[in-house]
Amino acid sequence: DKGNHRHFMAKEIYEQPETISHTLSHYVDMGAEKVAIRETLPFNFADLTRLTMSACGTAFYAGAVAKYWFERYARLPVDLDVASEFRYREPPMQKGGLSLFISQSGETADTLAALRYCAGQGQHVASLVNTLESTIARESGVVFPILCGPEIGVASTKALTAQLTALASLAIAAGRARGSIDEATEAELVRALTALPSAVSEALAAEDQIRDISKRLSKAKDVLYLGRGPMFPVAMEGALKLKEISYIHAEGYAAGELKHGPIALVDEAMPVIVVAPSDELVDKTLSNMQEVAARGGKIILVTDAEGARTVGHGVADIIEIPHVHSFVAPILATIPVQLIAYHTAVFMGTDVDQPRNLAKSVTVE
Ligand code: M6R
């Protein structure tokens, strides 16, 4: 049932304030401002020397954001790879590490093969899934649910924000167990998570403006997405979503890589979507935006009020999202990139929920 929405994807985008709350209520004790992991862990975060994550597509980008969190807040070294590369690379692994597999469906063939490889290498196997009765869940030592309800649209939306919410909670738990964050920091990060559902509702209110921008985007041949730090995976996710459902060519790049190649593409016909809420890196991104503007590129800036004030001068299109703690900013920043892809696809007249050539669950290699 699509409710009042034209597509399941729109319904799932709009469900996110509730689905994030639901995921949070599983992982967080809001009153105590603490993370409370209910699953029995077959390992101790404090003893881990390494975390290895593998996933595909959007689930891989969830892992790519989480890598920043586990490194920064838990001081845990992280290896991350797309499952289809990881499984054939057969990397040597030190016994006792934790391998975490992220999959909405729990049936992705490459992710499952990566899991079996890691189990054979003496790793603790954990998975983060939506479908609890799936093969990946069954073969895992511990299963972390994301609890966002069935996702029907082929383009993943609410599963991503649920994966990120759960991963953020796990990173806090790991940080506490490893002594790299104290109780006060845990409380600060938990408050940041608790503020998310209402911030997501506010971000969804930019829909009319995004529809106008998307109308112009639907005429573009290529679109570049840029981000730094945890916004880099958000940029890649934005590009993937646009490709999947609008069939417009898009690329996500680390903003600092711009001058190492992609800037050669920038001209008046090239929209460049810069995902840059105010943080310690926003000034660096400003210089990349100036490089784009100097070549006539059309910038669409996703930022908060502070970012608009400090780096938004001369930018015609600013999509403003509420200011949140930088810890949860990548979760919030996925909302406008989802809406951009959705509305562009609607203008293109594509089959949004069943895009050509794609399957919801990729059970072949
Ligand atoms: O079910 P999974 O999370 O393992 O699926 C992984 C990818 O196939 C999936 O995220 C895909 O990239 C989506 N179509 C993205 O919107």
Automatic annotation (TrEMBL):
GO terms for cellular component: cytosol
This protein's UniProt keywords: Aminotransferase, Cytoplasm, Glutamine amidotransferase, Repeat, Transferase
EC numbers, comma separated: 2.6.1.16
Catalysed transformations (reactions): D-fructose 6-phosphate + L-glutamine = D-glucosamine 6-phosphate + L-glutamate
GO terms under biological process: carbohydrate metabolic process; fructose 6-phosphate metabolic process; protein N-linked glycosylation; UDP-N-acetylglucosamine metabolic process
GO MF assignments: carbohydrate derivative binding; glutamine-fructose-6-phosphate transaminase (isomerizing) activity
Active site: K360
Domain SIS: 41-180, 213-355
Broad class of where this protein is predominantly found: cytoplasm
EC main group: transferase
Location in or out of the cell: Cytoplasm
Subunit note: Homodimer.
Function: Catalyzes the first step in hexosamine metabolism, converting fructose-6P into glucosamine-6P using glutamine as a nitrogen source.
Protein name: Glutamine--fructose-6-phosphate aminotransferase [isomerizing]
Protein species of origin: Devosia oryzisoli
